[in-house]
C-alpha cells in the first residue's frame, strides 16, 4: 500500500473523481504521510476547516483507501454529548472491531483501571498523574504491537468535542511515535476561538505534525463538481449561480445539486423546458444541510444565524448582541464563523431561502421571543417604525405600550406607500394587544379608515366601538369626523346628528384643531348631505374661510371656497381654482373630498372636457392604489363629464364600471350619482329597458335627503318625459326643485331642474308655466355658462312666438361648443330646423336638420330625437313598467303614484284598478278638468271660472298627476266624458 502511495502520489482513481475537486492536494499530502509512516516515520496530521467544508468526507475517503491498501484502522468520532466523558475517545478507538480480540481486551482493562473523573470534563492537557501515565504506556504498547503487523492509521473526527483525558493521551502518544509505523489523523472544526488552545500548542511543537487547512471551493472547483454530476453544458449554465448560493461550501453545493437532480429526475414532477439557473433552496436536501451546518458550528453561531434570519440582514454586531444579550466580540466571532461556512455573505445569507430555512427550524416560541428581542433592539437603536413593526408582526404579539405606538406609526407609513394589506396587519396586531381605551379607539378609527377605501360596507363593523369611544369622550376630532362621514354615507342621519352633537358637547369648538375638522366636515355635509344643514343655512350660505388656510388652494376649506365662487356665478374663477387644486393635491384619503369638489366645479363651470381628463388621471392613480372607494368617485365623475360632453356610450361605460366596483349595499346614499348618469344616458340613447333597470335598482329612502337624490330625481324626470309621462316627469322635477331650493343648492349648472320642468310643462300644454320656469332659471347664478345658458335659451325659444324662435335658436347654436355640449347643440339644431319649417324656410330647415342628425349620431342618440315634432320626442313605445316614484316621506309633497305603471309591478303584471276621477279630484280640479276635456282653452276656462290662467295651469298640473294622463285628449276618457273633435292648446 505504501508503495502505491509512494509511486503514484495516492490512489489515482480517487484523485480523478470530481467529488474531490480542489481536494487532490490534501489527499496526496495524506498519502505521503502514510508512506512515511509505513517506513517507520510516524506522524500526525490535523485537518481543519469550517463546517461543511468536507473534513469528514476527506477523512473517511482517505481511511477507506488506506485500508484497501493494507493499513489497519482505528477510528473514533468525538461528540458534544460525550465531551464530558473521560477517555471517551480512547475507549472508542480501542474498541474497534479491527483491533484483534486479545489487544482489545488488554485495552479495555487498561481504560477500566483509569480513575473515573480524574480530569474534569473541561480539562485540557496538563500534568498527567501516575495512573494515567501507566494507561498511556499500555495503549502505546498495543499500538506498537499492532504496527508490527503493518501501518496503523488512527483517525479521530470532530476533535473539537474530544474530552480532556483523551487529548492528554494523544499528546503522550504523539511524543513517542516518531519511529513507529503509526499515522495519527485528526479532523476538527476550525473556529475563531480554539476550544483546545493548549492542546494545539503542544501538538504543533512537535516536528512530526502537519496541519492541513480545507478552504471553500473556488469557482473552478464548483464548476468541476457540477460538471462531474451534470455534465459540461449544465456546468457552464449553473456554475455562477450555484457558486454564489453555496459560497463554495461542498456541503451546500452537494445539497443544491441533489435537489436539482430530484426536481429534474425522469418520472418526477414535470420540469420547465428551460430550468432556471437560480438554485432553489426549498427542497429537503438543502434544508437538511443547512440545519446540519448550524448545529455543527460553534454554539453562538446558531443563535447569531437565527438573529440574522430574524433581522433579514446581517445588521451590526452591536445590534445583534443587544438582541441576544451577547457581547459584540462574541457576535463578531460567530459572524466570521458563519461566513467561513459559506452560509453568510457580506450582508446577508448567500441564498434567500436560507433565511426561511433557519427560521423554520427554530421552535415557534423561541422564534417569537427572538423577534420581540430584535424589535426592542431595533427600537433602542432608533430604527424607523417599519422594520420594528415587521419584527412585532413576526412575533405575533406586542405586549408593551411603546410597541402599540410603533405599529400605528408603521401602519401610516405603509399606507402612504400604498401597502394597504401591511398597514392592516400592523393595526390588527396593535388592536389585539392594546389595553388603553383611548388608544384602542384611535387604532379602530385607523383600521376603519383603511377599510373604507376598499369596502365602505365592511368598514361599518367598527362603528359600534367608535360610538362607545365618542360617548366616553375618547375620540379625537379627526376620528369623530370619520365616524360621522361613515354614518352619512350610509344614510344613518339620526345617528350622524347625534354624533355631531356629542362631538360639539365634548368641546370640539374650543380646540382649534377640532374646530378646524368640524368646519371641514360641516362644509362637506352642506353640499353632500344638506338636509342636515338646512337649519344653519345650507351649502351656499357657508362663508368662505379666512386665515392662513384660506390662501391655500389645497386647504380643508377648498370645498367651501369653490362652492362660494359658484354661488356667486364666478364660473371661470371657480374653474381656475379647481385646476389649481387638482395640480397641487396628492390623491389620498384626506384629499378625496377636495379633489371631488374640484372635478364637480369644473363640470358646473362648463368644462366637462377638463373634468374628463382629470378624472381619467385620478382614476388611473386610484386603480394603482387598489382603492375601490376612490375608483367609484372618479369613475362616476368621468361618467358625468362624458354625459355633459354628449358622449353617451362613454357615460354608460364609466357609470356601469362605477357600479361594478362596489356592491350596491356598499354604495349607501351615494348610489344616486352613478344611477342618475346611467338613467340619463340610456334614456337619451333610447335604451329605455336599460333605463328601467337602473330605475328599479333599490335605493335607500335617505338618498332623497342627500344631494345624490336631487340628481336621481332629475334623471328620472327626464326618463318619464322621454317615455311620454310628462305629468310624472313634472312631479320629479318639482320635487327636485323644492329640495334644491330648501337646501340652497339651487344652481342650474349643478342640477337644471327648471329646464326639465319647463319641458314637462310644455308637453302638458302649460306654456305660461314653462316660460315662467325658463325666465326664473335665467336669473339664477351660473346661467352665464354656455351649456346652461344655451339649454335655457333653447327652451325660452320654445315658449315664444314662432317668428322669434329662429333668431334666438341661432344664438344658442353659436353659443354652444361640440366639445363641451354636443347633445345640447344637437337639440338646438333640431329645434332650429323645426322653427324654420314652421316659417316655410325649407332650405334653412334642411341645413339645420342635417347638422342635427349628424350631431345626434355622434352622441349615439337615436334619430327620434332629431325628427320633427317639437321639443319633447317620446319613444314610439314606452316600457311596460317602471320603478315607483320616491315615497312621500323621502321627497316632500311627492305623491307615491305619479304614474299608473309606477307602482313597482314587474313587467307584464296585470294593471291595478285605478280609482275613479271623482275620488281623487277636488271640486275645483274637477271643474277645470271637465272644461279642458271639452276643448276649452286655458284662458277661456279662467274667464268662465273667474280665476287666472296661472291658477288654471296649476289645477291642470295636479289633474294630470292624479289621473296619470299626459294629454288633454285623454281627460275625457278618465272623466267619463265624450272626447271633443279637437284639442285646444
UniProtKB/TrEMBL annotation:
GO biological process: one example: regulation of DNA-templated transcription
Give UniProt keywords alphabetically. ATP-binding, Nucleotide-binding
Query: What positions does the domain HTH luxR-type occupy?
Result: 914-979
User: Matching Pfam families, A to Z?
Assistant: AAA_16, GerE
Q: Can you list the GO cellular component terms from the UniProt entry?
A: cytoplasm
The superkingdom of the source organism is: Bacteria
UniProt entry tagged with the keyword ATP-binding: yes
Q: Does the keyword ATP-binding apply?
A: yes
Compositional bias (Low complexity) at which positions? 269-283, 884-909
Q: Which SMART domains match?
A: AAA (SM00382), HTH_LUXR (SM00421)
Q: Where is this region: Disordered?
A: 263-283, 884-917
Give any GO molecular function from the UniProt entry: DNA binding
Give the protein's recorded name.
AAA family ATPase
Amino acid at each position: 500500500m505504501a508503495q502505491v502511495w509512494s509511486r503514484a502520489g495516492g490512489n489515482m482513481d480517487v484523485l480523478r473523481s470530481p467529488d474531490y475537486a480542489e481536494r487532490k492536494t490534501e489527499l496526496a499530502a495524506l498519502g505521503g504521510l502514510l508512506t512515511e509512516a509505513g517506513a517507520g516515520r510516524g506522524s500526525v496530521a490535523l485537518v481543519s476547516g469550517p463546517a461543511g467544508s468536507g473534513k469528514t468526507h476527506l477523512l473517511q475517503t482517505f481511511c477507506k483507501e488506506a485500508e484497501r491498501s493494507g493499513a489497519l484502522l482505528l477510528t473514533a468520532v468525538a461528540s458534544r454529548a460525550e465531551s464530558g466523558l473521560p477517555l471517551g475517545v480512547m475507549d472508542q478507538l480501542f474498541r474497534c472491531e479491527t483491533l484483534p480480540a486479545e489487544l482489545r481486551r488488554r485495552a479495555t482493562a487498561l481504560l477500566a483501571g483509569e480513575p473515573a473523573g480524574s480530569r474534569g470534563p473541561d480539562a485540557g492537557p496538563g500534568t498527567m498523574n501516575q495512573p494515567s501515565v501507566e494507561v498511556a504506556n499500555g495503549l502505546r504498547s498495543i499500538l506498537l504491537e499492532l504496527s508490527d503487523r503493518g501501518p496503523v492509521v488512527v483517525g479521530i473526527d470532530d476533535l473539537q468535542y474530544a474530552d480532556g483525558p483523551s487529548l492528554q493521551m494523544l499528546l503522550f502518544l504523539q511524543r513517542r511515535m516518531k519511529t513507529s509505523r503509526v499515522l495519527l489523523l485528526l479532523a476538527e472544526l476550525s473556529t475563531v476561538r480554539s476550544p483546545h488552545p493548549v492542546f494545539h500548542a503542544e501538538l504543533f511543537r512537535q516536528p512530526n505534525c502537519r496541519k492541513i487547512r480545507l478552504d471553500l471551493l473556488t469557482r473552478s472547483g464548483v464548476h468541476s463538481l457540477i460538471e462531474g454530476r451534470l455534465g459540461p453544458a449544465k456546468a457552464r449554465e449553473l456554475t455562477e449561480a450555484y457558486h454564489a448560493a453555496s459560497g463554495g461550501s461542498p456541503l451546500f453545493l452537494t445539497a443544491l445539486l441533489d435537489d436539482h437532480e430530484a426536481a429534474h429526475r425522469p418520472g418526477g414532477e414535470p420540469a420547465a423546458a428551460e430550468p432556471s439557473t437560480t438554485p432553489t433552496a426549498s427542497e429537503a436536501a438543502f434544508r437538511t444541510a443547512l440545519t446540519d451546518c448550524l448545529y455543527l458550528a460553534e454554539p453562538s453561531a446558531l443563535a447569531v444565524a437565527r438573529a440574522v434570519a430574524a433581522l433579514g440582514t446581517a445588521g451590526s454586531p452591536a445590534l445583534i448582541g443587544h438582541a441576544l444579550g451577547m457581547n459584540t466580540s462574541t457576535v463578531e466571532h460567530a459572524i466570521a464563523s458563519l461566513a467561513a461556512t459559506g452560509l453568510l455573505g457580506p450582508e446577508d445569507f448567500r441564498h434567500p431561502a436560507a433565511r426561511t430555512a433557519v427560521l423554520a427550524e427554530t421552535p415557534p416560541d423561541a422564534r417569537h421571543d427572538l423577534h420581540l428581542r430584535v424589535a426592542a433592539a431595533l427600537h433602542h437603536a432608533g430604527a424607523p417604525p417599519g422594520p420594528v413593526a415587521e419584527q412585532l408582526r413576526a412575533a405575533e404579539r406586542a405586549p408593551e405600550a411603546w410597541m402599540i405606538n410603533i405599529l400605528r406609526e408603521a401602519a401610516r407609513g405603509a399606507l402612504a406607500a400604498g401597502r394597504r394589506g401591511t398597514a392592516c396587519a400592523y393595526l390588527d396586531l396593535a388592536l389585539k394587544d392594546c389595553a388603553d381605551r383611548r388608544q384602542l379607539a384611535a387604532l379602530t378609527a385607523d383600521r376603519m379608515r383603511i377599510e373604507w377605501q376598499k369596502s365602505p360596507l365592511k368598514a361599518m363593523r367598527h362603528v359600534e366601538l367608535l360610538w362607545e369611544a365618542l360617548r366616553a369622550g375618547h375620540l379625537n376630532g379627526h376620528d369623530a369626523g370619520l365616524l360621522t362621514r361613515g354614518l352619512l354615507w350610509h344614510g344613518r342621519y339620526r345617528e350622524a346628528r347625534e354624533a355631531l352633537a356629542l362631538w360639539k358637547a365634548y368641546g370640539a369648538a374650543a380646540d382649534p384643531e377640532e374646530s378646524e375638522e368640524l368646519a371641514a366636515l360641516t362644509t362637506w355635509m352642506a353640499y353632500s348631505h344638506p338636509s342636515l344643514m338646512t337649519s344653519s343655512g345650507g351649502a351656499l350660505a357657508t362663508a368662505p374661510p379666512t386665515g392662513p388656510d384660506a390662501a391655500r388652494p389645497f386647504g380643508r376649506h377648498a370645498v367651501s371656497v369653490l362652492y362660494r365662487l359658484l354661488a356667486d356665478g364666478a364660473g371661470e374663477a371657480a374653474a381656475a381654482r379647481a385646476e389649481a387644486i387638482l395640480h397641487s393635491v396628492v390623491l389620498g384619503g384626506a384629499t378625496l373630498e377636495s379633489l371631488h369638489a374640484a372635478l364637480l366645479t369644473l363640470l358646473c363651470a362648463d368644462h366637462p372636457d377638463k373634468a374628463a381628463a382629470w378624472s381619467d388621471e385620478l382614476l388611473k392613480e386610484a386603480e394603482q392604489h387598489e382603492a375601490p372607494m376612490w375608483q367609484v368617485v372618479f369613475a362616476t365623475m368621468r361618467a358625468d363629464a362624458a354625459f355633459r360632453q354628449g358622449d353617451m356610450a362613454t357615460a354608460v361605460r364609466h357609470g356601469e364600471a362605477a357600479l361594478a366596483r362596489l356592491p350596491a349595499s356598499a354604495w349607501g346614499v351615494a348610489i344616486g350619482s352613478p344611477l342618475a348618469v346611467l338613467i340619463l344616458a340610456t334614456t337619451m340613447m333610447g335604451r329605455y329597458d336599460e333605463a328601467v333597470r337602473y330605475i328599479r335598482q333599490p335605493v335607500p329612502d335617505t338618498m332623497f335627503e342627500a344631494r345624490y337624490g336631487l340628481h336621481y330625481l332629475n334623471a328620472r324626470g327626464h326618463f318619464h318625459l322621454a317615455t311620454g309621462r310628462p305629468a310624472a316627469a313634472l312631479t320629479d322635477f318639482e320635487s327636485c326643485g323644492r329640495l334644491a331650493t330648501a337646501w340652497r343648492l339651487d344652481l342650474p349648472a349643478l342640477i337644471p331642474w327648471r329646464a326639465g320642468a319647463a319641458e314637462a310643462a310644455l308637453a302638458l300644454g302649460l306654456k305660461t308655466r314653462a316660460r315662467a320656469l325658463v325666465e326664473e332659471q335665467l336669473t339664477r347664478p351660473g346661467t352665464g355658462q354656455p351649456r346652461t345658458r344655451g339649454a335655457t335659451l333653447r327652451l325660452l325659444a320654445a315658449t315664444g312666438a314662432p317668428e322669434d324662435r329662429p333668431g334666438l335658436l341661432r344664438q344658442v347654436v353659436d353659443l354652444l361648443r361640440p366639445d363641451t355640449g354636443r347633445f345640447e347643440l344637437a337639440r338646438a339644431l333640431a329645434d332650429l330646423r323645426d322653427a324654420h319649417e314652421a316659417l316655410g324656410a325649407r332650405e334653412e330647415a334642411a341645413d339645420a336638420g342635417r347638422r342635427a342628425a349628424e350631431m345626434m349620431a355622434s352622441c349615439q342618440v337615436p334619430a327620434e330625437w332629431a325628427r320633427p315634432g317639437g321639443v319633447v320626442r317620446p319613444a314610439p313605445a314606452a316600457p311596460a313598467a317602471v320603478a315607483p316614484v320616491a315615497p312621500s316621506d323621502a321627497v316632500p309633497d311627492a305623491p307615491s303614484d305619479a304614474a299608473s305603471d309606477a307602482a313597482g309591478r314587474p313587467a307584464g303584471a296585470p294593471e291595478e284598478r285605478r280609482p275613479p276621477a271623482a275620488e281623487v279630484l277636488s271640486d275645483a280640479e274637477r271643474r277645470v278638468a271637465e272644461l279642458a276635456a271639452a276643448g276649452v282653452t286655458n284662458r277661456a276656462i279662467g274667464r268662465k271660472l273667474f280665476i287666472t290662467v296661472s291658477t288654471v295651469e296649476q289645477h291642470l298640473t295636479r289633474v294630470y298627476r292624479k289621473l296619470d294622463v299626459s294629454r288633454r285628449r285623454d281627460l275625457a276618457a278618465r272623466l267619463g266624458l265624450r272626447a271633443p273633435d279637437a284639442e285646444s292648446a
